[in-house]
Design brief:
10 strands; Four Helix Bundle (Hemerythrin (Met), subunit A); Rossmann fold; 49% helix; alpha/beta; 3 domains; 14 helices; 5-stranded parallel β-sheet; elongated
Length: 387
């Protein structure tokens, strides 16, 4: 019987296989639409071509074709510029589009090495602590201090994993901790190391606490700039337990609820699977005009919404939602390969919390969603206590 991680791996493999299987047909359609535009540059054909290229830009990288996403994004920007040009597809500019099309077709035959396993790196079972566990990563070369802290924290339900350097901790592929405690003597090395992301889905990415034998402004400022959420001086007293309890306890036991709105089914299922593996509840909407029922049923904490969808764009759908009092303050994070600043500003004016660029890595997606929901729930808790 397969464990959940193996099942998820199989699901992703199926989605990627479907993407790869349909890729030749999509590229043939791109070529046919382009040839049709050269013969009869009608707006309808351009809209279809833009929609198809946008889909490739968003999903290519997530299914192991980063070069395809890059080529499709460049082609999308070029075609959007053509749509606003006074003389559409002037002969002098056709060569540029043809060059981008050639790059797109060439990139389809060049998946990234190890692409099959890439989306699973941040979701391996070893990185997912069991419910209720509070694992701490302690990084210090001082063995005596490590023993002292372990003796102090273990009676309070914390499990200590100790490493002498940040590099050894990052290379271990260890269970994602509730928090990291780092000796400030290791600050220079700590800044250059990438740690496994937290994938529990009930809190923001791991809090980082610094311990130090110094207590001057300079070292405190260095710790703050390195992302420190707390700073304690040696000898460590009971304040460490209080800080850890405050930083690692989830605001409540309720799983985060995320609604994904994207017209590309395989991409939507990839996003949903990634967040589900991180402990969140998800629902998928592939037709933006059918959002009402799943929105009312799930009552999401946050909506992940594609910016460009046929029939109703992300900006249009966000505008409609904002007209309903119940959804006026619901966080909306737009997903798009679009980099135009006016699109970002329009999204922010509609209350969009942020933009996430397609393709997005699994660990970035989990951290971005978890941090925004955590912030919202913390704010709501403060409002409730104040009433």
């Amino acid at each position: 019987m397969l464990d959940p991680a193996q099942e998820f791996a199989q699901e992703l493999a199926v989605l990627r296989g479907e993407f790869v299987g349909q890729l030749p047909g999509k590229l043939a359609r791109v070529d046919a639409l382009w040839q049709g535009l050269l013969t009869d540059p009608r707006d309808g054909d351009l809209a279809d071509l833009l929609s198809l290229v946008h889909s490739l830009a968003g999903s290519g990288g997530m299914f192991g074709y980063p070069a395809l996403s890059t080529a499709a994004t460049a082609l999308q920007h070029n075609l959007r510029a053509e749509a606003g040009a006074r003389t559409f597809l002037a002969p002098a500019r056709q060569a540029g589009v043809r060059h981008l099309l050639a790059a797109l077709f060439e990139s389809a035959g060049a998946p990234a090495p190890g692409a099959d396993a890439a989306p699973l790196v941040a979701l391996a079972p070893a990185l997912c602590p069991a419910p209720g566990e509070r694992i701490l990563h302690l990084i210090t070369a001082d063995q005596a201090l490590a023993g002292e802290l372990s003796a102090q924290l273990t009676p309070f339900g914390y499990i200590i994993h100790h490493w002498t350097t940040p590099e050894k901790c990052a290379a271990a592929g260890a269970v994602a901790p509730a928090a990291r405690i780092v000796d400030t003597l290791l600050l220079p090395a700590c800044a250059a190391v990438q740690y496994p992301p937290r994938t529990r889905g009930l809190a923001a990415p791991q809090p980082l606490l610094f311990i130090s034998r110094r207590d001057d402004l300079d070292v405190r400022l260095q710790a703050l700039r390195a992302g420190g959420a707390a700073f304690l001086t040696v000898p460590i007293d009971g304040a460490l337990v209080a800080q850890l309890d405050r930083l690692t306890a989830p605001p409540d036991g309720e799983r985060y609820r995320i609604l994904i709105v994207d017209d590309e089914p395989r991409l939507a299922l990839y996003l949903a699977g990634t967040l589900t593996r991180a402990g969140m509840l998800t629902a998928v909407v592939t037709d933006p005009l059918r959002i009402a029922e799943p929105l009312a049923r799930l009552q999401p904490d946050l909506i992940l919404m594609d910016m460009h969808m046929p029939g109703c764009t992300g900006l249009e759908l966000a505008s409609v939602l904002r007209q309903h009092e119940a959804y006026a303050s619901l966080p909306i994070v737009f997903l798009s390969a679009e980099t135009a600043i006016d699109q970002h500003l329009a999204g922010l004016q509609l209350g969009g919390g942020d933009f996430l660029a397609k393709p997005i890595a699994a660990d970035h997606l989990v951290a971005a969603v978890a941090s925004r929901v955590q912030r919202l729930r913390t704010l709501r808790s403060c409002v409730v206590r104040a009433c």
